[in-house]
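I am still getting used to backbone structure tokens and would like to learn alongside you. Would you supply a protein for us yourself, any chain you care to pick? Start from the sequence, derive the backbone structure tokens from it, and show both lines together. Go ahead whenever you are ready, and we will take it from there.
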Amino acid sequence: MPLTFLLAADAAATTEPSDSATSTVEETVGAVADATVDVLSILARIGSGVLVGIVVAFVGVVVLRLLGRRRSLYTEVARFSRTPLYAVCALFGAYIAAQVVASDMTTSWRSVVLQALLISVILSATWFIAQLLKAVESTVVGSVQAAGDQGRANRVTTQAQVLRRVAVAVVTVCGVVGAVMTFPSARFAMGSLVASAGLVSVIAGLAAQSTLGNVFAGIQLATTDAIRVDDVVDVNDLHGQIEEITLTYVVVKVWDERRLILPSTYFTENPFTNWSRRSHQMLGVVSFQVDWRVPIAQMRAELARVVAASRVWDGRTCALVITETSTTTVTARVTLSAANPDDLWTLRCHVREELIGWMQREAPYALPRTRVEVEQVEVAHDPAPEKVARLAEELVALQNPGDDGALAATTTMQAVETDPIEAARV
């Protein structure tokens, strides 16, 4: 047999696959192709369910906007809940489509896909309900603010915020629990937890005592109306405005733009000052230390002119009285009113500047001053020690009369002539 023929036969034997290998490859390729077709078919059906859900959500949004022309609630629902509504409808459509084509899936794929879609539907529904609660809150607050009663609007705003946060917390917990309960093992664990709920609740209550105290304090603040959003308060020697009230803490905006974060229990356990409990209208005082010669009538007239020209005065109170006096000055107190704390601060500063300028221009003699009076007084020298010595000599001379006595008498007469005090004594 020629060598070339043998080599060709060996090459053919090594390059041509066997019949069994060829059939295996063809089966694998066919299985992959069938699986790909099945997956694409399933995805197409699920996609059609998503598309139907989006169409339903679009129709729902359009209907809400049309209804919103008559009632603002529907407009707020469409504004806050549009995105979660699309998510809920799309995922729910996908879940329904997956249920329809579940018979075409393998066992492993079926359980995974259905559970993932079910969890997505539960979480998106939780999101939708939370946004729906926010829409209800916005509608209620907006309707109260439109009435024009600022005090009632602040009270309703505070209560709506707290109640909405409580409801959102409950809905979120229920949504998470519902998503976890889709797992069979979690159901068993939840059953065991419910069986031992008494002991667990005691342990959890002790561990979260501070947090639960703040939560209940937040609910108490909302229901008792002790503080409201935009109230002006004094806390920890700081003057500020209530910016936000949550279940666990209160945000106070201080005048220098700082935010003071206080636990809710602070306002239930400590005294504080609420300047706007009933109304935002406030009274303020500006004091001046002026001279006794201040023209009070002219100062009152200038105050009336300045206040009348101000845009922040609410027209209720404007008075000037003398409240205190001292040896050098008198205290002129100006009482002013404004519609809110910001306007009152602006008005006080404006009045202070204008009256100071008026006194400098028109009544400089009314500016405080200190008076000093210089008086010259002549004080004679006290000759008491010399006189005592001289009197002692006179006594000695009187007790021993003689030449010394005559000398003492002569000295005495000379002293009488020169010293009026000595003359009076003699």
User: Anything to note?
Assistant: The longest helix spans residues 19-67. Confidence is low (pLDDT under 50) at residues 1-17. The chain has four domains: 1-146, 150-279, 282-366, 389-425. The radius of gyration is 49 Å.
